Amino acid sequence: MHQLVTAALDAQDYRRAKQLIQQWRKAAPKDPLVLLSIGRLQEGTLQWDAAEKTYLTFLKRVNNPKLMGQARTGLKRVQQARESSRREALDEAKAVLGSEEPGVLVIKPPENAQQAAVGMAEVLRIDPYMARLQLPKKGLRLQRTGPIGEMQYYGEALEAAGIPTVWATLDQLKAVQVFQVKHFQAVLPQPVVVCQSPTGQMGSIQFDWSEVTQMVRAQLPVFEQVNDKDPRGKLQRKELVQDYAQVLDLHVHGRKIILRGCDRTYEFRKSVALIPDQTNLTSSRLRWNGLWQTIQRSTNCSTQEDFTNFGQGALEMMSLLPYMPVYLDLNRRKPSDWDTALQIYSTLLFLTK
Questions:
Q1: What is the C-alpha to C-alpha distance for residues 56 and 200, in angstroms, rounded to an integer?
Q2: What one-character DSSP code corresponds to residue 230?
């Protein structure tokens, strides 16, 4: 039977080989050559993962040096063929028109983290433990940046491994219009905001609270130069986080816009009263909290508040991306990657809502 199966496999007659192996397995289920032949059949029919598992199982069960050598050779062929197939698929993805446009790849929490970690490790060629650490428990995680063709290739592979993904070009993110809210002229029954358009023009927008489909709340670190002492007691200048700017994005999908407010830029003196004793409040943080409470009472939509985790993981990749406008003037001494990370985070959520 071994000779018949080998002849069928050599002739690439996989239908006959499968029939013969089924007969052989019933007649001699413990014959190690059966398992080796199954591996060859899986290899011949391009079932790389199954063949790899079969060869590895064979190596655990069999101590015959000659047969083990055949299994190792088969295992090497499978791994090389799979890697070659991946390279070809990636090259094809990169060859598509427009695939070189810069883009981002984001992953979401999977339903089965343990299984997803194994699949992610296989796709990205990393250790399963490291893959498990990279999987988000909630919210979004910026996984990669690069040509959109490559992002799509890895996104589809991760999707197949049970990991929800999102990929988009930077141009798609930039296409989302972000208006900077200066202050509210009215809150009820219909809100009216005075805002600055993406092109810098001032104007007002009237809308219904029911049009707000999603909100994003975020904190952006505000850095200041301070004096500090090094281990030897010598004074030195350091840039440290001294405070946090509060940002609130209102996503209005029907109008394809984001209304962005910030406690550092909101014009409280010009704003309609948001709470009864607002005029007696001197703290902008208290006034901002009053604004948030008013908006929260007026809307009935989800609020995304996991930006900090996203930003911490995304910071190291921001320098790899071309410039992106952030539509937020915090009068920083120098641009901050935190602002860019927020722009990516909010516009990604907008596009995937």
A1: 63
A2: -
